[in-house]
Design a protein that fits this description.
By secondary structure, this protein is of the alpha/beta class. The chain has helices spanning about 15-25, 65-75, 115-120, 140-150, 165-170, 190-205, 250-255, 275-285; strands at about 5-10, 35-40, 50-55, 80-85, 105-110, 130-135, 150-155, 180-185, 210-215, 225-230, 245, 265.
Length: about 290
């Protein structure tokens, strides 16, 4: 395949991939021109195998070998554009050691705990982005770095590819008189999935509601009898058909639930580089 654009999506969760797919859709980029370089086990949910190059796990903490791996991909395909998700210098600073030659660099920025990230890497070489896209409000220092190291930068609203819900699922979610359908969406880890289930079931008891609980998760857990797991992706296709939505405060789900804020209940969880509590606070201010 003639790949012209490389998306460097070096993160283990669903969020990086979901954001990348949304950016490709929003910008109307020809997907056949894109190669996705990722370490996530969920990559096949978004992209075909032909479009993916998996980053070997053993490279995770070996900066120079990881840089060499990425360099070889660039030289193999002679990419026109290299898109970097979230971590401007790479998750461990590896992008500082790559010769991008004639490849144009684009930074895709969401909120990042900048001081924690900056203290986790060594700033040894400068890097210059042809353009940076800001998906949400950044911290002051993160924004300053992005502006100082970008020829152009702008905010952008992401749109997610539409997905029609199959008839079987619509029929499944048809109301039984007196019952509501509540949906819980969270990929991992299991303790957070359980926390969302507990919160949803407690709220149903408090509100004295008769509820069918459904959950979408990538975690294998033992579910309570009153919670049914749905094997469907992407979750946002179900949002119009349920009465309440329970999620964490990850970037993508907070974007996807904006139009459903009247029935969306979010719980922030701690992350090393992301700040779900900051995003939750912003959501409450904007309501």
């Amino acid at each position: 395949m003639n790949f012209r654009k490389l998306f460097y999506v070096n993160g283990g969760g669903l969020g990086h991939l979901s954001r990348t797919a949304a950016f490709i859709y929003t910008q109307q980029i020809n997907i056949s021109e894109c190669l996705i370089l990722s370490s996530s086990p969920f990559v096949d949910l978004f992209f075909s195998k032909e479009q993916v190059q998996i980053i070997p796990e053993y490279l995770a903490q070996n900066i120079k070998e990881l840089a060499n791996f990425v360099q070889c991909e660039i030289e193999k395909h002679c990419f026109e554009t290299f898109y970097v998700d979230t971590f401007p210098l790479g998750i461990v600073g590896e992008l500082q050691y790559i010769d991008f030659k004639n490849t144009k660099l684009i930074y895709l920025a969401r909120y990042l705990k900048w001081e924690i990230y900056a203290n986790s890497i060594k700033f040894e070489k400068s890097i210059l982005f042809s353009k940076s896209y800001l998906f949400e409000e950044l911290s002051e220092k993160h924004l300053s770095f992005t502006c100082d190291n970008s020829i152009q930068y702008s905010t952008i609203q992401l749109f997610y590819p539409p997905k029609e819900l199959p008839l079987a699922f619509k029929q499944k979610l048809q109301h039984t008189q007196g019952f509501e359908n509540w949906l819980i969406v969270h990929s991992t880890p299991s303790e957070e999935v359980y926390a969302l289930i507990e919160h949803a079931t407690d709220l149903a008891r408090k509100e004295k509601k008769q509820v069918y609980f459904y959950i979408i998760t990538q975690t294998i857990i033992e579910l309570p009898e009153n919670v049914e797991q749905i094997d469907f992706f992407p979750a946002y296709a179900l949002f119009p058909y349920v009465d309440k939505i329970f999620t964490a405060c990850g970037f993508n789900l907070m974007q996807q639930t904006k139009v459903y804020d009247f029935k969306h209940i979010a719980i922030p969880f701690a992350r090393r580089f992301d700040n779900q509590f900051h995003r939750f606070a912003k959501m409450k201010i904007n309501k």
